[in-house]
Amino acid sequence: MYQGCYGICTSPSVLTALSVAINQVFMNIISNAIDALSNYNSQRPSAEIYLNLNRIWITTEIIGANCVIRIADNGSGMTEEVKKRLFDPFFITKAVGKGTGLGLSISYQIIVEKHGGTLKCLSEIGQGTEFLIEIPLDFNKEITSSKQSTGVWTKSSGSEKIT
Hints:
By secondary structure, the chain is α+β, with helices and mostly antiparallel strands. The protein has a single domain, classed as Histidine kinase-like ATPase, C-terminal domain (Heat Shock Protein 90, 2-Layer Sandwich). It contains 4 helices and 9 strands. The chain has helices at 19-41, 46-51, 80-85, 103-114; strands at residues 2-3, 17-18, 56-63, 66-73, 118-123, 129-136, 150-151, 153-156, 159-162. Its EC number is 2.7.13.3. Keywords: ATP-binding, Kinase, Nucleotide-binding, Transferase, Two-component regulatory system. It comes from Nostoc flagelliforme FACHB-838.
C-alpha cells in the first residue's frame, strides 16, 4: 500500500498490491528489456554502443487516482505488428529456447485483472520502448497491517519506507 499525496492529491491514498505478483511484473519487463538491449547491441558496432550506452529507466509517480510506474529502455524499439501481439500468450520474439512467451501475458493479467489497472507499451523503431503501468489508488481505504502477500509502501515527509 502507498500512503501519501503527490501533486494535486488532497487526501491520503492507499495502493494495495500483491507484492509477489507485482515483483513478477517488474522482473518480466526488466528481463525483456535486458534481452532486447543485448540483442540490439549485437547489431551495433562497438563505437556506437560506447557513444550510446544502454539504459533502463524506472520512474514512479502519482497521477490523479493512479500510481504510475514507467519502465523504459533506449533499445531498438518494436514494430506495430509486435506491439499488437505483445500481450498474447505464447507470443515470442526471442530465439527458440530463450523464453516461453508467457511473461508479458501473465504481467498483463496481474496488472489488469488482479489490480484493476492498465499495462501499455509505447514503442517506435529506433526510439526504444516504455511500459506504462497504472494501478488505481484507494482514497477511502485506511491503512492497516499488511497481509502476508501484500506489500505496504508508505511515504511521509519526503522519505519512503517498505514494511
